[in-house]
Amino acid sequence: MVRLKPKEKKVKPVMVIGGGIAGIQASLDLAEAGVPVILVEKKPSIGGVMAALDKNFPTLDCSICIEAPKMSEVMQNKNITVKTLTEVIGVSGRAGNFKVKVREKARYVTDACTRCDECVKVCPEIRANEFDYGLGFRKAIYTPFQQAEPSPYVIDIDACLNNPPNYMPCNRCLTACLPQAIDFMQEPYREVEIDVSSIILATGFDMLDASILEEYNYGRHPDILTSIEYERMLNSAGPTEGHIVRPSNHDHPEKIAFILCVGSRDQRYAFYCSRVCCMYSIKEAYQTIDHGVKDVTVLYMDIRAYGKGFDEFHARTKKEGVKYIRGRPSEIRVDGDKPVVVY
Ligand SMILES: Cc1cc2nc3c(=O)[nH]c(=O)nc-3n(C[C@H](O)[C@H](O)[C@H](O)COP(=O)(O)OP(=O)(O)OC[C@H]3O[C@@H](n4cnc5c(N)ncnc54)[C@H](O)[C@@H]3O)c2cc1C
Ligand code: SF4
Ligand code: SF4
């Protein structure tokens, strides 16, 4: 009897949805195991929230310095196909055999882009930069951040003056771009169906809209910030180049209070613990003292420093002079020029 050699089976790819640090690491691990990966990210760059952070607790390592090498590894790995500006619009099939329909938005800038920034200098359209959570600005043609991957710039077509009906096309970027990387002829959308064996959801988390807690007056006084906005302020590549300032007048503040559990462990919004605000507030309070702000207070329900080195980091922060007060503020008053925390 002749035994036939089994045909070498082609491994179907796995789709990873979400290009934050979780999706990046999952893609790298799968690729290393020989599995082809399709990494889908809705934003212009992979990186997720970690790319926006300044330092990481508890070691205070630079966040993007850890993540950027992984981002470029993803881009260079032959087993990984990265699709940015892409969202899943439908899934059918069953485990081992899914058909995923995705919609890809045009970037309008090709791989010929050298990131020279000449287009940005001439673009007249300014918008709030989503990557700075609205604290900074960008142009209609932009790159979300220096280490963005894929590296070509991107055009926000809704903000661009060439967006139809363009009776008077702008084309300033087109003229400024010497490598001719700008291509307004790209189809605005492309729908593709992809066969995959499995799907990993790594879509991360969304920030709570803090303005729904009316008692805290977020959005009604510029000096009341969310933690992620403050994180961008601490970042030397951020909108204030790492300087802690009051957005209302650009003065250096003398007194800063951090309020924990905003919206979480609260029956009105999220009844659960976020598991991160204790630790990132310890980090941000430590950095605030390090920046020379003398009076730093953290108002907390209880400090959940549960990981390796976390409790020691909390103790170190207290030793540096951060005051901890157990209490949940009832209100932030905004009647004067400075917000007043009532607890
Ligand atoms: C202020 C602040 C400070 C922090 N500091 C630290 C710290 O010092 N140390 C630490 O360890 N952790 C810290 N964290 C927590 C850390 O940021 C997160 O745990 C981590 O970034 C989560 O990564 P992720 O990949 O799961 O999610 P994300 O970073 O949220 O990434 C998810 C990605 O999925 C994409 N996505 C979402 N939906 C879709 C969709 N439908 N289709 C395609 N793509 C989609 C998103 O655009 C995003 O890029 C901090 C968090 C905050 C808010
Ligand atoms: S699009 Fe052109 S002008 Fe703009 S950064 Fe890229 S190469 Fe430079
Ligand atoms: S064509 Fe659009 S992206 Fe280019 S410079 Fe004009 S407004 Fe900016």
Explained architecture:
This protein is an alpha/beta fold and 343 residues long. 20% of the residues lie in helices and 22% in strands. The strands form seven sheets. The protein has a four-stranded parallel sheet with strand order 5-2-1-13, covered by helices on one side. A three-stranded antiparallel sheet has the order 6-7-12, with no helix packed on it. Helix 1 links the parallel strand 1 and strand 2. It is globular and about 60 Å long. The protein starts with 13 loop residues before the first strand and ends with a strand. The structure holds flavin-adenine dinucleotide and iron/sulfur cluster (SF4) (2 copies).
Brief account:
With 343 residues, the protein is α/β, with parallel strands linked by helices.
